[in-house]
């Protein structure tokens, strides 16, 4: 099976996201990458869940980790009866999918897809863990290929020589976007806000851009307006943790304010990803509030005096009037017309067909 991660940066290779083997799941620790290349080893599916909660892996990384966690859960219950294995895996699916509150709906698609693959393997007497790993690779191939289609639509919006601003770490779309830009001979400069407090833009997006041979500049989170004006940014783009069917975009906190600036300056904002059936309206979104102490430090170094308070919402919500278009595998849609995506028979980035059920 040819893999869709071929030719992409180190951290986009499946084994370097998360991988199950011999009763363990190894997850690249994105909290310290790229200054250190370290893997967190999980020996139970509960440890995988905790690793996702603790931000060991971020962006789309948790979805691969979740599937590999299901493979590990299958290993844990391998000596049980068939009925008990299914019950154990159903419980594991719930546990893993609820590792972070804002992404539960997408995560359930992944863990339930793994569960379906496991049930089929149990019926056929096959190795259940290996069946889940194989299903994950096939699902990732389908998802990466869908995102490559998104990348073609997105890169069509870039000028031949232009400047693009990103936000946080869009995972696969970053690599595919750059691969397509290179194929089309487009010379783009990238500007990546650092994305505190985990610095995903500075550490992850910028590293992938650099690894793939592009001119990339890191800026602090309070520079987007100046940079957009001074450097003549052509396009602002981000992925999304959820895209509601009513056009609201949920992404790393800070996206909303950059979208406001982009609108003011006439810079189009294209969000990549398929809309989420699990979020028909913005009212269904539960914004995750994380440990406020993280905003009082920078990569472990305390920056504020003792006694002051922090505030740390993981995500914010950009309303549809600030979104120029939602870039999907089936083309670019208006944020006000996302129901048409599913009406055309599309299944979404993490749709059930993708998960081989």
Please give a handful of descriptors for the protein shown.
alpha/beta, globular, 357 residues, 38% helix, single chain
Task: Note down, in words, how this protein is organized.
- The protein has 357 residues and is an alpha/beta fold.
- It contains ten helices and 15 strands.
- The protein has helices spanning 45-53, 61-76, 82-97, 104-124, 128-155, 172-183, 200-211, 224-230, 255-265, 339-343, and strands at residues 18-21, 24-28, 39-42, 161-165, 187-193, 215-219, 235-238, 242-243, 249-252, 269-272, 297-298, 301-302, 315-318, 325-328, 331-333.
- A seven-stranded mixed beta sheet has the order 6-5-4-7-10-14-15, with helices on both faces. The protein has a three-stranded antiparallel beta sheet with strand order 1-2-3, with helices on one face. Strands 8-9-13 form a three-stranded antiparallel beta sheet, covered by helices on one side.
- Helix 1 packs antiparallel against helix 2 (61-76), helix 4 crosses helix 5 (128-155) and helix 5 (128-155) packs across helix 6 (172-183).
- The protein starts with 17 loop residues before the first strand and ends in a 14-residue tail after the last helix.
- The model is unreliable at 352-357 (pLDDT under 50).
């Amino acid at each position: 099976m040819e893999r869709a991660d071929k030719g992409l940066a180190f951290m986009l290779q499946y084994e370097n996201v998360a991988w199950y083997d011999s009763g363990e799941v190894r997850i690249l620790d994105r909290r310290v990458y790229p200054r250190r290349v370290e893997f967190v080893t999980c020996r139970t599916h509960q440890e995988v869940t905790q690793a996702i909660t603790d931000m060991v892996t971020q962006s789309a990384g948790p979805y691969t980790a979740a599937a590999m966690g299901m493979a590990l859960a299958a290993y844990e219950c391998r000596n049980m009866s068939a009925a008990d294995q299914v019950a154990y895996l159903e419980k594991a699916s719930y546990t893993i999918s609820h590792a972070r509150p804002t992404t539960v709906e997408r995560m359930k698609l992944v863990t339930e897809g793994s569960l379906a693959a496991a049930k089929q393997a149990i019926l056929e007497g096959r190795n259940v863990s290996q069946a889940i790993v194989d299903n994950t690779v096939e699902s990732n191939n389908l998802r990466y290929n869908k995102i490559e289609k998104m990348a073609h639509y997105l890169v069509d919006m870039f000028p031949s020589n232009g400047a693009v601003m990103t936000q946080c770490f869009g995972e696969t779309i970053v690599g595919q976007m750059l691969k397509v830009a290179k194929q089309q001979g487009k010379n783009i400069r990238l500007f990546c806000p650092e994305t505190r407090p985990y610095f995903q833009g500075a550490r992850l997006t910028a590293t992938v851009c650099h690894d793939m041979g592009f001119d990339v500049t890191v800026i602090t989170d309070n520079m987007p307006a100046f940079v957009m004006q001074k450097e003549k940014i052509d396009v602002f783009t981000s992925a999304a943790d959820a895209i509601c069917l009513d056009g609201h975009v949920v992404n790393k906190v800070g996206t909303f304010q950059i979208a406001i600036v982009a609108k003011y300056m006439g810079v189009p904002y294209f969000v990549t990803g398929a809309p989420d059936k699990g979020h028909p309206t913005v009212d269904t979104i539960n914004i995750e509030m994380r440990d406020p102490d993280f905003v009082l430090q920078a990569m472990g170094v305390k920056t504020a005096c003792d006694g002051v308070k922090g505030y740390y919402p993981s995500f914010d919500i950009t309303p549809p009037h600030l979104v120029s278009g939602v870039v999907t595998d089936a083309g670019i849609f208006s944020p006000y017309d996302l129901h048409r995506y599913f009406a055309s028979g599309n299944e979404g980035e993490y749709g059930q067909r993708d998960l081989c059920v």
